[in-house]
Amino acid sequence: MLECRDLGLSYEGVPVLEEISFSMDKGQFYVLLGRNGSGKTSLIHCLNKTAEPDKGQINIMGKNLKEMSPRQIAGKISLVPQEHMDVFPFTVLDVVVMGRAPFLGFTQRPGPKDYDLAAQALAWLNAEFLGSKNFNRISGGERQIALLARALVQSSSILLLDEPCNHLDFNNQFLLLSTIKSLCRTQGLSILAAMHDPNMAALFADQVIMIQDKTIMAKGLVEDIMTPETISILYDTKISPVTLKGRGNLFFPDTIFKGKP
Amino acid sequence: MQETAATTELKNQEKDSSLGLILSLVLAVCLVISASLGRVDVGLSDIKELIQWMWQGDDGPPLSASAQVFLWVRLPRCLMAALVGTGLAVSGAVYQALFRNPLVSPNILGVSAGCTFGAALGLSLSINILGLVQGLSFAWGLAAVAMSVLLARAIAVKPIIVLVLAGMVVLSFFNAGLMVIKYFADPYDTLPSIIFWIMGSLTRATWSHVMFIAPITLAGLALFLAMGFRLNILSLGDIQSRSLGVVPAPHRRLLIIVSSLIVAATVSVCGQIAWIGLIIPHMARGLAGPRHEKMLPVTALLGAICLVVADTAARSLSTAEIPVGIITALAGAPVFAFLLYKNRKTGWL
After folding, report:
1. Which helix (H) or strand (E) holds B29?
2. How confident is the model over A79-121, as pLDDT tens digits?
3. Which residues of B touch A126 (CB under 8 A)?
4. Of chain A residues 39-68, which have a CB less than 8 A from chain B?
5. b or e along A97-135 (b: 16 or more beta carbons within 10 Å of the residue's beta carbon)?
6. What is the ipTM of this complex?
7. How would you list the strands of the sheet with A77-80, edge to edge?
């Protein structure tokens, strides 16, 4: 669905990403891992053309991203940003229906059919009850669900999520990632999420892409890539695994096994 | 659930139409009352006489004094108040969405300061050319916005914040320029006229002014109404707007140019009329909600109603006319305080 070849990005001459190559398939959940400032968000912005890469090529369903208009791109790829507050007190349904923007002309406004689609997306996420609520006055978890619903209304192909678990409590992180994973399976979506927690990636992702020093350090299936060695290199700290019954490994810095820090 | 969302939306649209109808009726009533109030009594007989005169042309009897006052003074002034109120209010709403800030007024990029500087320059030149003051005011208002935009473009980081800061720089520059002109102005002649001009008034309204402002304001309003849904998207910020397929830069450019044209046109004719561009969008949001496709028509009607009422008060409250800018400023501060208090829990602050 998405192919990225030798991508390079720099801001004011300072390289941020170099030689990034990977591809995404239908129905798969990909997680981007890397330290703070490693370029995860920049890569996400390149993929939906909110940032202009200097080098390389991105193809979406065989089409070069450079040859697509912003509206065409928005119709194929949607973005769930990090936690966000609106300036004006829109309702959740108003926010979700904004996902129809790529399909409406310059002077068009969403009609009843668009509102139906927005309500349907909330229903998929079991969040119909949020529809009439003020977006600015719901919890962080509910806001992420609302933005996910907007992304579903916008694109039925590729979803990009920029640190979706930011500001979410423990339970909401699990709920959100379970929902994302089931969307991949049931709707055939291809989802890429930048995340900080390798354990959440290990539990939910199908494939992982690790970014270090501006480039891809490792990529592949969770069971192949998520090893104590790769994670140790990625976060520059010694990591030990803890085996979960039937669910693979979780990873923790060695320091926690050597008494209280 | 599917049916519910569509039905709710249809019901909301019906509610919006009735609100629009009620406000249109209120505006019509305000215009009639405003046109009939003043030093000279104007009644239905004058309007009847005027219609007959327009029908017969120069062949009919000459117009009475009161009918002439209605035709050449009262009517253009009332229409001007409605147009200026509409223009300032919708420009304020558009600026607030573009700058993602509910506390922004149309003066953020220095357009009013530029207009005032231009008018003061025109008044101090003491050259008797028809439309010089208005022309200079309009040109300097647009020049101020162009300077803000060019300065922001030269700095070229974080477009919204830099644009606001560039606007502050330009605003300060023109305010300083205005002070210089006031300092050197003749204190018995030019200085009072500059000060009176700054206060904002509709006394100067003529049909030619109406013909100048009407096309700019109405064309701008039509564009804003057409772009209502896009303004919702633009108010989310650049990254989200772009990711939803709405490229912010060209939209912002177009909307800033049109808003600035409207504000420059109104300020060049009426001087500075404070608070309308800041408060009316908030009142409209309170009535119609935050969606721009719904709140902009309400903003336009409310802006017209408020300025027609303020102008009527300006020429009826005392024997000498009070500049309308004073009325809007006096009423604006407490009304805004009330709106802040009333909306403290809606999440728009």
Report:
1. helix B2-36
2. 998 767 777 889 999 999 999 999 999 999 998 899 999 999 9
3. none
4. 45, 48-50
5. bbbbbbbbeeeebbebebbbbbbbbbebbebbebbeebb
6. 0.87
7. A77-80, A158-162, A190-194, A29-34, A207-212, A215-221
A115 and chain B in contact, CB less than 8 A: yes
Query: Across the interface, which of A45, A101, A110 has its CB nearest the CB of B245?
Result: A101
- Which of chain A's residues have a Cβ under 8 Å away from the Cβ of B102? 87-88
Q: What are the DSSP calls for B66-118, one per residue?
A: HHHHIIIIIHHHHHHHHHHHHHHHHHHHHHHHHTT-TT--GGGGSHHHHHHHH
CA A223, distance to chain mean position in Å, is 20
User: CATH assignment of A2-226?
Assistant: 3.40.50.300
Closest Cα of chain B to A53: distance in Å? Answer: 16
Contact residues on chain B for A123, CB-CB shorter than 8 A? 1
Which of B110, B171, B144, B156 lies closest to B249 in space, CA to CA?
A: B156
At residue B203, the 3 state secondary structure works out as: coil
pLDDT at B2: 45
Rounded distance, CA B116 to CA B11, Å? 45
Top CATH class of B74-342 equals mainly alpha
What residue has token string 């029908």? B55
- In angstroms, the CA A77 to CA A234 distance is 28
Q: What is the 3-state secondary structure (H, E, C) of chain A?
A: CEEEEEEEEEECCEEEEEEEEEEECCCCEEEEEECCCCCHHHHHHHHCCCCCCCEEEEEECCEEHHHCCHHHHHHHEEEECCCCCCCCCCEHHHHHHHHHHHHCCCCCCCCHHHHHHHHHHHHHCCCHHHCCCEHHHCCHHHHHHHHHHHHHHHCCCEEEEECCCCCCCHHHHHHHHHHHHHHHHHHCCEEEEECCCHHHHHHHCCEEEEEECCEEEEEEEHHHHCCHHHHHHHHCCCEEEEEECCCEEEEEEHHHHCCCC
Q: Which residues of B touch A79 (CB under 8 A)?
A: 239-240, 243
Residue located via tokens 């119909």:
A128
Query: How sure is the predictor about B1, in pLDDT bands with cuts at 50, 70 and 90?
Result: very low
Whole-model pTM above 0.90? no
Domain ranges of chain B: 74-342
B323 secondary structure, DSSP code: P
Give the model confidence (pLDDT) of B281-318 as tens digits: 999 998 999 999 999 999 999 999 999 999 999 988 88
From residue B115, give the alpha-carbon distance in Å to each of A45, A151, B209, B262, B265: 41, 44, 16, 12, 9
Domain ranges of chain A: 2-226
DSSP string, B31-48: HHHHHH-SSS---HHHHH
User: Cα separation of B71 and B74, whole Å?
Assistant: 6
Instruction: Pick the closest to residue A52 from A66, A32, A67, A71 (CA basis).
Output: A66
